[in-house]
Design goal:
Elements (H helix, E strand, L loop, with lengths): L2 H8 L3 H41 L3 H10 L4 H10 L6 H19 L3 H28 L9 H62 L10
Length: 218
C-alpha cells in the first residue's frame, strides 16, 4: 500500500499522526545527540578532574571543567569549586543545588514523548470509529450480500489502518522514551557517585588546612 493510499484508508486522523511522528523523530534525534555526547566524554573528563584535584592541582581541574562546560557534571562541579572559601556544608549544598538545576535539561522533552505515546493510539482508535461510522452509514440493508456490502467490508478493513498507524507511532516513541528515561536514571546515579567523591576530597582538604578553603574564586 502506497503512502497516498495509506492516508486515504486511514482518514483524517492520519494527518495529526503524521505530525506526531515527525515531531517524535525530531525530538528523538536531539536527545540521541545529547546523550551520545555525554556518554562519550563525561566519565573520562570527570575522572581526570578528580585525579587533578586529588593531586592538589585545583587550577588545572577547574580549567578542565570550564573547557567542558557543556557537560552536566562539569557545571555541577564548577558551581561548588568556584565558591569563595566555602565550608564543607556550603560545598555540599552547592553541589546538590546545581544537580537539581540540571534535571530539566536531562529530562527535556519527556512530557512531549508522554503526550505522543498517550494520544497516538487514541487518534488511531478515533480513525477506526469514524471509518466504521462512515461504512455503516453507507450500508444498504436491502442489498445484503451485494456489491455495496462488499464495499462496506473493505471500508472496515481500511479503517483499521488508522489504529495500526497510531500504535506504530506510539510504540516507536515509547521505545526511545524509555531508553532516555533509563539514561536519565543512570546519569543521576553518576552525579551522586562523582559528587560524593568530590565532596569527600574537599572535606579532607578542608580538615587538613583548617579554615583555609581550597576552592577558587571565579
Amino acid at each position: 500500500m502506497g503512502i497516498k493510499n495509506l492516508f486515504t484508508a486511514g482518514g483524517v486522523v492520519m494527518w495529526p499522526l503524521l505530525a506526531f511522528s515527525v515531531l517524535a523523530v525530531a525530538l528523538i534525534m536531539e536527545r540521541v545527540r545529547f546523550w551520545v555526547i555525554i556518554n562519550r566524554r563525561q566519565s573520562r573528563v570527570i575522572r581526570e578532574v578528580l585525579n587533578l584535584y586529588r593531586l592538589d592541582n585545583v587550577v588545572s581541574a577547574v580549567d578542565k571543567l570550564r573547557q567542558n562546560a557543556d557537560l552536566p557534571l562539569s557545571r555541577i562541579f564548577l558551581a561548588a569549586l568556584e565558591l569563595e572559601e566555602p565550608t564543607p556544608e556550603e560545598f555540599r549544598l552547592a553541589l546538590e543545588t546545581e544537580a537539581q538545576a540540571e534535571i530539566p535539561s536531562l529530562k527535556r522533552f519527556q512530557n512531549f514523548f508522554d503526550t505522543i505515546i498517550g494520544l497516538a493510539p487514541l487518534l488511531g482508535l478515533l480513525g477506526t470509529v469514524l471509518g466504521l461510522i462512515a461504512s455503516f452509514a453507507s450500508l444498504n440493508l436491502g442489498d445484503v450480500g451485494g456489491t455495496k456490502t462488499t464495499g462496506v467490508t473493505a471500508g472496515i478493513s481500511e479503517a483499521l489502518v488508522s489504529t495500526a498507524s497510531g500504535l506504530v507511532v506510539a510504540i516507536f516513541t515509547l521505545f526511545f522514551a524509555n531508553s532516555f528515561r533509563g539514561l536519565y536514571q543512570r546519569q543521576m546515579a553518576l552525579i551522586q557517585e562523582y559528587g560524593g567523591h568530590l565532596e569527600l576530597l574537599y572535606r579532607r582538604r578542608y580538615e587538613r588546612g583548617g579554615e583555609k578553603s581550597y576552592a577558587i574564586t571565579r
